[in-house]
Design goal:
single chain, 359 residues, alpha/beta, TIM Barrel, eleven-stranded mixed sheet, three-stranded mixed sheet, 13 helices, 18 strands, 20% strand
Length: 359
């Protein structure tokens, strides 16, 4: 099994973020200004040794690679931000392409959604997403091609892996067909397309909109388990209570975010696990996005190592396991070491891999 972790490249300044959020903005800005909202709420999340790194520094990427190697994380899934020719947060991946001595396997997940100013309780679109026409798809493909050709870019059956965050756009099938044709012209056997399922509708309904070229479907966590939990608890009383609590947060009356029991979610994940050749499973460890959304956010508590080991033992025949995430610090979802947890989740991964290799 290969462990690939989602990787957020927003830990460096870009002109657009300076304009939208203020001079000097990076993901650390939200992380540092977080406040505890209730007793025993651990905020802000602090990197071990106060390592507020800059992703444009080569030493940062070398350090991240050393962690991945030591704790047996096989590679990273870089979020790719492309808006009909406009790139955002592209420098870390482009630097990796130049720094051939950093032997880090990777591939892209296209975060194909508009950027919305929602971190402050607003819903203004600040970067719209349009897919364009064939000439736009060609320009995007030409940009991706230099990454596909890199030996470190993950491939299966001579097909570079490419994941899409959103699967519901009308140009998808025609665009995938075109890119697949172009990749063959460039010496590949096509593209290994991965679409993302969030669990907000039934899987059978979701599959009706899949591209014929899609190789796998990513079951994205913790979205799947949150939606499953809400489905199990959708009585009129509970839904009404949730709406009322949400409105109280919007009005500033309630200061405590929604809370989910990570142990309960993980037990449900274990109970409902079913191996399927068309599905790539994923796993989360905990979640807390209150540094972005304050009381409008939500928290998923951690679960015990035994549950992680149990789930991984059930899923050990899978080819890939996607980890959410390597460094989503503002969502409280990171494998990188923290002051309060140190290397906890990395140690879980390494321990399971070592044990599984011996068996």
């Amino acid at each position: 099994m290969k462990f690939f972790a989602f990787f957020l490249p927003q830990f460096h300044e870009i002109p657009e973020n300076n304009k939208w959020w203020g001079e000097g903005f990076t993901e650390w800005t939200n992380v540092k200004r977080a406040k505890p909202l209730f007793s025993k709420h651990i905020q802000p999340k602090i990197p071990l040794n106060q390592n507020y790194y800059n992703l444009l520094d080569k030493s940062t990427m070398e350090w991240q690679l050393s962690l991945q190697n030591k704790y047996k994380v096989d590679g990273l899934i870089y979020y790719h931000y492309y808006f009909k020719g406009k790139l955002l947060l592209e420098k870390p991946a482009e630097n990796l392409l130049k720094w051939k001595d950093i032997n880090q396997p990777f591939f892209f997940c296209w975060a194909n959604h508009p950027w919305i100013r929602s971190w402050e309780g607003k819903s203004e679109i600040i970067m719209p997403l349009e897919y364009g026409l064939k000439e736009d798809w060609e320009r995007h493909f030409r940009y991706l091609l230099k990454f596909f050709r890199d030996e470190r870019y993950e491939k299966k059956e001579n097909k570079p892996l490419f994941c899409t965050y959103s699967s519901n756009f009308k140009e998808k099938r025609a665009m995938f067909d075109y890119w697949n044709m172009r990749s063959k012209e460039e010496g590949f056997d096509g593209i290994y397309f991965i679409e993302t399922f969030m669990g907000d509708i039934s899987y059978e309904e979701y599959k009706k909109n899949l591209s014929r070229l899609t190789q796998k479907v990513l079951f994205r966590e913790p979205s799947i388990q949150i939606n499953a939990f809400n489905d199990l608890n959708k009585s009129f009383y509970k839904l009404t209570k949730k709406r009322i609590l949400g409105k109280m947060c919007d009005l500033g009356i309630r200061k405590k975010p929604l809370m989910y029991d990570g142990t309960r979610l993980m037990k449900h994940k274990i109970q409902t696990y079913k191996s399927d050749d068309e599905i790539i499973p994923s796993i989360w460890f905990e979640w807390d996005n209150t540094s972005r959304h304050k009381e409008r956010g939500y928290i998923i508590s951690s679960y015990k190592k035994e549950l992680f080991m149990h789930y991984m033992d059930k899923a050990k025949k899978e080819e890939y396991m996607f980890l959410n995430a390597w460094n989503e610090w503002a969502e409280g979802m990171m494998l990188e070491p923290t002051e309060d947890l140190a290397y906890k989740y990395l140690e879980w991964i390494s321990e399971w891999k070592e044990r599984n290799q011996k068996n």
